[in-house]
């Protein structure tokens, strides 16, 4: 997700963000690791204007014009959805594991990935 005050739902190409200031996460966070990898893979060098520990803070600061940020869509606070621009090159695997003899609640949890709309490169592969 690219979040900034002039965005608005259209897809963001990473090259469009070249030279933009970035609101990033703590250096040891998984989210900053994802951002570093995405930027490295696309030959971009970020200018960091702030580091935060919470996704909601990153979105709010980006919304106020401090810079752009990259967060999971599920982390966008209510009222900020209109600022989101999907970034097509970012995806992470989702793995769900349950114990042997799982009960109905655990089994129901495994149904959630089947209901998700996955990108073309993603797939759902149950393992027995």
UniProtKB/TrEMBL annotation:
Name of the protein: LysR family transcriptional regulator substrate-binding protein
CDD domains tied to this protein: PBP2_LTTR_substrate
SUPFAM superfamilies named among the record's database cross-references: Periplasmic binding protein-like II
Domain of life, per lineage: Bacteria
Transmembrane segment boundaries: none
Start and end residues of each LysR substrate-binding domain: 9-112
Native source organism of the sequence: Pseudonocardia aurantiaca
Pfam families noted in UniProt: LysR_substrate
